[in-house]
Amino acid sequence: MITPETRSNPSDYGLPDENELLARIAGYFPEFSEPPATSYSPTVVPLGSGYRAPTHNASTPPPKSGNALYIGNVPHDKVRADFPILSEKVDGKPLVWLDNAATTQRPRAVIDRLVYYYEHENSNVHRGAHTLAARSTDAYEDARKKVAAFIGAPSADNIVFTRGTTEGLNLIAQAYVKPLLSAGDEIVLTILEHHANIVPWQIIAEETGAVLRVAPVDESGQIILSEYAKLFNHRTRFASVTHVSNALGTVTPVAELVAIAHGFGVRICVDGAQSISHIPVNVTALDADWFVFSGHKIFAPTGIGAVYGKTEVLEAAKPYQAGGNMIADVTFERTEYQKAPNKFEAGTGNIADAVGLGAALDYVSSLGIENIAAYEHFLLEYGTEQLRTVPGLRIIGNAATKTSVLSFVLDGHDIQDVAKHLSAAGIAIRAGHHCAQPILRHFGLEGTARPSLAFYNTPDELDFLAATIKEIAR
Ligand code: PMP
User: Fold this and answer.
1) Which residue owns the Cα nearest ligand 1 atom 6?
2) 353 neighbors 304 (Cβ within 8 angstroms)
3) In testing the pocket of ligand 1, which one of 172, 193, 198, 274 has its CB within 8 Å of the most ligand atoms?
4) To 10 degrees, the CA torsion angle through 286, 291, 296, 302?
């Protein structure tokens, strides 16, 4: 493959002719499906200092058997009981947490893991020859292995800890893509993107004279593959795309998008903020060059997330921030950097929350992400049916492949008023532009009301949601 690092001029580029391109695209359509999950097998890596996470014993679906709900073979009420905040009352009403696309709640296993870390392991990592430094380093590096195993990365060395998706995308833009850009070069995005996957590219485009090309969606909110492919040309230097739209819930055909980008010798980043907790992800099977996600979207603490990069892109990227931890040797004349991932982790990182992220991934793996995906599919279909019974309610985003999100508008009602009314009933949803203004404006809207699901939600909660919106509609 010709890569942005090796390509020196457009004639190296091997641009296919129109017919070959159309044949290639035609070939993608019948395959339109979830990314392959072939070699996905969550591994629970033993922890260094004696802590053992509690595990469920999950196997296959069904999500519903008679009136009882299951995730794999774990009864649903047992799963819900793992999340202390779900028993919380707000203004005297039981909490119905349907704001999972903004952030998820934490299971007891994650909360306990943080307490254990601070009570038994806390120290800075990578330095110091004492027992607690060894414990915290083991816990931190074990968490990195858990991230690698969870997303199917070949090695923990391919995983960089960041504050979250936003910092990950800024890292990739500044450290890897900006040095590739000259005036007139192009970066391919889609109209579905979250602002975090728009603005970092806009900034480096402004700084270098590069331009952004934006792929459109069809009326269901799905990327049009043939239009996507047309955006690539000999000036394309990079592409970045969301795996799941936070505003509409569209699951994009990301394996196909990666194949199209690679067909043009272009590297591609996948924003996994909204896919990571809902569908299996295998970066190796996807062949993504970069993949980013936030811990707080997958039941882990805030302030921690991860960037996956293929070894060659991590090697090609410059350091993002500089200081301690990322250097091998420093003189006033020159500095030698550590290899990835340390090259990108200057200063003291968010050690405890990285360990918490490892515990969250163990928890999800103990239920089985495939089982979670099956349960949530059932829940999304159920919720969609219930909302369709509300007079004047219009669901925004009807892609054939969708997860978690039920964005809607209600005739004659301001979305903020809808959210306030729901909040008074104990139901937490988000109303607004969801940091994805381009896609909402494409549908002629400045905002939607957005309930968003996680595996701890129930059909009863969705009945209550629909009934409460009906009260507003009356
Ligand atoms: N991308 C998508 C698709 C998102 O949904 C979000 C969070 N709403 C982000 C990026 C940014 O994530 P964070 O705020 O955790 O950095």
Assistant:
1) 273
2) yes
3) 274
4) 160
> What percentage of the chain exceeds 90 in pLDDT?
85
Residue 159, strand partner residues: 308
Structure tokens, 375? 């349960």
Which residue out of 296, 302, 435 has the highest number of ligand 1 atoms within 8 Å of its CB and is therefore the one to mutate?
A: 435
Cα–Cα distance measured from residue 319 to residue 345, given in angstroms and rounded to the nearest whole number: 9
Q: Say if ligand 1 is within 6 A of residue 243 CB.
A: no
Please state at what angle helix 131-150 crosses helix 108-120, rounded to 10 degrees.
150
Q: Tokens 């009863």, residue?
A: 460
Residue 340 near residue 328 (C-beta atoms within 8 A): no
Interval 202-231: pLDDT, tens: 999 999 999 999 999 999 999 999 999 999
pLDDT tier at 129 (50, 70, 90 boundaries)? confident
Dihedral angle at the C-alpha atoms of 151, 268, 440, 407, nearest 10 degrees?
A: -20
Distances (CA, A) of 117 to 32, 83, 124, 159, 336: 44, 19, 12, 21, 32
- Both tokens of residue 292? 């980013």
How many CB atoms neighbour CB 288 within 10 A?
30
Decide whether any atom of ligand 1 lies within 6 Å of the 452 Cβ.
Answer: no
pLDDT at 63 (0 to 100):
72
Distance CA 352, CA 354 (A): 5
In the predicted structure, residue 62 carries a pLDDT above the cut 70:
no
Listed residue (155, 154, 126, 52) closest to 346, CA to CA: 126
Q: Is the pLDDT of residue 390 over 50?
A: yes
Q: What is the tens place of the pLDDT at every residue in 446-457?
A: 999 999 999 999
Q: How far apart are CA 387 and CA 382, in angstroms?
A: 9
Q: Nearest CA to 399 among 218, 192, 215, 220?
A: 220
Residue 174, ligand 1, Cβ within 6 A: no
Counting from 1 in the atom list of ligand 1, the atom nearest the Cα of 271 is 1
Catalytic residue among 435, 458, 470, 473: 435
Lowest-confidence pick of 43-57, 259-273, 380-394, 423-437? 43-57
CB 139 within 8 A of CB 148: no
Sheet arrangement for strand 64-65: 64-65, 68-71, 74-75
Beta carbon of 166 within 6 Å of any ligand 1 atom: yes
| SS3 state at 78 | helix
409, 417 contact by CB (below 8 A): no
Instruction: Round to whole Å and give the CA distance between 363 and 402.
Output: 24
Nearest alpha carbon to residue 294 among 201, 360, 250: 360
Bond into 42 cis (ω within 30): no
